[in-house]
Each structure stands twice: as structure tokens, then as C-alpha cells.
């Protein structure tokens, strides 16, 4: 394997690493619900309606891990059939992640520091992810590869927001005096905003490369 091939594998590896903490946390959440851990004010809403959160976590893990390999150019070019087969799994999984997230936002009671602004952002992000996946699917049906890639990159970026939010929440944990609705909203929103900004940069770079 040459240096270029090794460097391209850094992309899926990095994406999976970014989602590692949410994947582990989600796995323990599912195990806890299945094993009947102690019910607390923080997890009572999950025990009251476990199906949405279980669907959200399982599909998010599949979406994060399987989707990461879609961004390796060498792997995608060598195994186009695998890429297409994975896409048929990823779009339904992504839709379940987004729709279950919207359901939880709407029906689960808010926890500490979750205010109306964060509620609105979550609804916007979930709806945007559904839209990106639907537009990506429509584009590939028309054999419009550039737009398909662009919309799928945006959808994946939004879906991986929880990974970036691990880091954007660090100031809130280090400086407890700033904890509150505003800090929580900014930390959550920053995770999605950073991912979307990186996605738009990648899309723009690919477009410039195609024109050059």
C-alpha cells in the first residue's frame, strides 16, 4: 500500500474516531435500557419510551461507521458495487436517525439546560438532514454524481454532529460558572455548525478540482 492509499484511509479512520465517544455512550445506553439499570431523572424519559432512542442509537452507529468508508476515494473507486450497496443501507439508516431525533426532540421532556432555542435548532438540524438525504437520493436516481456527493456529505456532517459536540462542550465542563441554557445551546449548535462548515469547504474544494 503506497503513501497515497494510506493517507486516504485516514479519512474513514478519522471519521470513526470522531464518532467513537457517542458510539460508546450510545452502546452503553442501549445496554442499560436492556438490563434495567436504575431509573434517574436523566434517563427516565428513555425508559418511558425506549423504542425511539434505541432506533436512533443503532442506526446512528451504522450510519457513522459504514458511512465513513464512503469518503475513501480509493476504496470507492476499487469497489463501486460495495459503495452502491452501502448507500442503500445508509440512506434508510440516516433517515431513521434524523426522524427519531425529531421525535425525541418533540416528545421527550427537556433536561437541564435544554431551552427553546436549542429545541428550535434540533428541529432545524433534523429536518435539514432528512432534506439532504432525500436530495442526495434524488440526485443519484438522476445519475447526478456531483450533487449526490454534495448532499450526502452535508447529511453525514449533520449526522456526525454528536462527535464534534463532545469537543465543543469542553468549555462548559471546564468552567462550570458558564453552565446554562445559553452555553448549552452554543455548544450544541457549534458542533453542527463546524461540521457543516467543513462539509461546505470539502464540497467547494471538489468543485474547484473538477473545474481545474
Overview of the molecule:
The protein is 83% helix and 0% strand. The model has no long low-confidence stretch (mean pLDDT 91). Helix 7 (116-141) packs antiparallel against helix 8 and helix 8 (145-159) packs antiparallel against helix 11. The longest helix is centred in the last third of the chain and has 31 residues, at 181-211. The radius of gyration is 18 Å and the shape is globular. It is mainly α and 212 residues long.
How big a fraction of the residues is strand?
under 5%
Query: What is the overall number of helices?
Result: 11
Q: Radius of gyration, rounded? A: 18 Å
**The biggest beta sheet, please?**
none
The counted number of beta strands is 0
Alpha-carbon distance between the termini?
28 Å
Structural class: mainly alpha
Give the helix proportion (percent range). over 70%
Mass-distribution shape: globular
Indicate the multimeric state. single chain
Low-confidence stretches: none
Give helix and strand order, one letter per element, not per position.
HHHHHHHHHHH
Q: Which descriptors would you attach to this protein?
A:
mainly alpha, 11 helices, 212 residues
Concise summary:
By secondary structure, this protein is mainly α. 83% of the residues lie in helices and 0% in strands.
What is the topological layout?
Layout: H1 3-18, H2 20-35, H3 44-48, H4 50-68, H5 73-78, H6 80-107, H7 116-141, H8 145-159, H9 161-168, H10 170-174, H11 181-211
Helix pairs in contact: 1-4, 2-4, 4-6, 6-7, 7-8, 7-11, 8-11, 9-11
